Amino acid sequence: MSIFKVLAIFPPLLACQIDIFLYLCTLIFPKTDPYSMKKILALVACLLLCSSAFSQEKSLFFKRIKEAFVVHDTIYIYVDPSATDTLQQFDHDDAVIDNEEDENENEQEFAGSIPTPFDTLDTEDKFQKVIIFDNGTWAYYNLDKPEIPDSLSTDFWDTKVIHVRGVDLNSLPDQIDIPLVDSTHGYCIPHPGPITSGFKYRRRHAHRGIDIGLNTGDAVYAAFDGVVRVNMTTRYSGGYGNVIVIRHVNGLETYYGHLSKYIVKSGDIVKAGELIGYGGSTGRSSGPHLHFETRYMGYAFDPERIFDFRSGTLRDEVFTLKKHYFNVNSHYGMSDQQSAKASKNPPKSPSGVSGAVYYKVKSGDTLSKIAKRHGTTVQKLCQLNGIKDSKALQIGMRLRVK
Ligand SMILES: [Zn+2]
Fold first, then answer.
1. pTM, rounded to two decimals
2. Cα of 331 from ligand 1 centre, angstroms
3. Is-contact 127 145, C-beta < 8 A?
4. Alpha carbon 237 to its chain's center
5. How much distance in Å is there from the Cα of 197 to the middle of ligand 1?
6. How confident is the model over 119-165, as pLDDT tens digits?
């Protein structure tokens, strides 16, 4: 920082400067009136200062004031002595590495001292952080980035469609062993909480996942390592609300529905346990919960078959997936015999699977008007929605009409 900068921005110093000048004036011209001289000088100084300051852009002026007070610290890159890289001086403010610094001098400076990390900074790569040590040094730290085979995001890869069925169900083997985790790929329960609804037929439609109770804003985590295939908002996903679909290294896909917000996007590599979004009640939902699905080749099976949500653990490291698990009548807790038998049963209400039609109540609507418009009766509407015909309708309310 130059002395002129200090004088220009620091009024007491400027006043000193004027006093010195006045003193010199009185020595040269003893008869001058110091008071009027002082006034004239102060006025001239102010005019000079203002004109020079505002002759440049205002923002530049304030930037210069700010810069004048910045203490330019020197930060050193600390590199593991066993590494081949050498120590370099790093000017933090100018972000320029100064290669001319004497390396030996720096090495001596750090010899024998073990720096303690006290903060971390994010980089553009989420699997790489910068650790700041208490002695002003820093180093890159690489987080465990999951190894993802390229084929994972190429084969049957579609980021615009929620369900991608790789193969016909009939061509799948009767059973397949899926190693869920290994020494490098872990797992995580997407959200610890009570299961409020299971994998089953529910209100005449197939519920191909489980509902986990949560509060809006609660964290939701990736179940396994993988790549985000779909991030879709309520507008496009239909009943799922804001939804994330992750394709995992172990061959499964997991769905996370009704999120209030998601923070990953298709193509992102995620690690088991990584925060991917926050729970909510978007889409076809009656209250905040996480709708969680597990699928293989696009076919859903009961997530409770792999996770024990009560203890937050994996039931087994290797999951034997049987074809009859894909039937929505087959759920965890059934014996294989029961499951195989249940899967042969026709769905309890096949018409309900895709035939459900909803209507949003508008101003002036009555139950009889809605019934007439949809070719049904008030009685049927009440039955479908579990309401009485005396129920007061509210604008925006969703009624099932078929
Ligand atoms: Zn659900």
1. 0.58
2. 15
3. yes
4. 19
5. 7
6. 888 888 888 888 888 888 888 888 888 888 888 888 889 999 999 98
